[in-house]
Amino acid sequence: MVSANDLVRLATAAAQRASQYLRTVERPRDPTTWGAKGPADWVTEVDRTSEELIRDVLLGAEPDSNIIGEELSPQLVNRGLVWIVDPLDGTTNFLHGVPVYAVSIAAAVDGELEAGVVLHVPLERTYRAWKGGGAWLGDQRLRVSTHTNPRHSLIGTGFPYSDFTTLDQYLAQFARVVSHAGGVRRAGAAALDLADVAAGRYEAFWEQRLSAWDIAAGTLLVREAGGKVTDFSGRGLGVEHGEIAAGSPEMHAWLLSQLWEAES
After folding, report:
1. Which pLDDT belongs to residue 201?
2. Which residues contact 264 (CB under 8 A, 6 or more apart)?
3. What is the pTM of this model?
4. Which of 122, 177, 181, 234 has the fewest beta carbons closer than 10 A?
5. CB atoms inside a 10 Å sphere around CB 259
6. What is the pLDDT of residues 90-137, one digit of tens each?
7. Both 98 and 51 in a single domain?
8. Residue 38 domain boundaries
9. Residue 42: predicted pLDDT
10. What is the domain count for the chain?
11. Last residue of a domain, one of 141, 161, 176
């Protein structure tokens, strides 16, 4: 079996190849060329090409592995070596020229996260983590924030943008958090939100509905930086779709309490 260290190196190489493409490709400015997976949920040939480049690198090195990819192979798999790939996290930002988007690649073995890479494309920042090896930005080891006072804390979030069936629930959560925290931000790329938690920029982050490829690599970053990642009930997350709450141990507990209070 390939080591976690080898997996993170391979994921880094694949992310760098996709990032180079994303930095040089012409941004599709005409909305009539954008495909829609749902209301305001866009996909373009750029997303698909980026995923194909990643697949070429990963399967070229590990031909017996499987890929869960947002655009080309979204079916969840939990056996053997599986790559969980978001070829362009923050597509809407990319389409509008907002410099907050990333390539996210995680590796799991039999459902357990082993390695993760989040590459912030415009800033060319590569966040890496591997199981038991810590979380890193270059040669800087990442640690979650040590702030424990909510009034000193900055909380990341993602609000509903395509499916609004839980909007009222989200607004109650938002009202609870924003009225007790130092600030709340919504950047539009969950992989980078989780990288910001791992780096201590955000004290915590929550979102109601995300896909495995949005959060797999970021989940490992946060855990290896000393943080916690669960669903809203406090259950640890695997390779799955759904809700997410992440943060330092203290602020994660606080965030969960706010989400629970919003339900009462």
Report:
1. 98
2. none
3. 0.93
4. 234
5. 20
6. 999 999 999 999 999 999 999 999 999 999 999 999 999 999 999 999
7. yes
8. 4-141
9. 45
10. 2
11. 141
At how many degrees (to 10) do helices 212-224 and 190-198 cross? 0
Choosing from 141, 168, 192, the residue where a domain stops is 141
Mean of pLDDT over the chain: 93
Are both 240 and 114 inside the same structural domain?
no
Same domain, 16 and 130: yes
Find residue 104's DSSP bridge partners.
86, 118
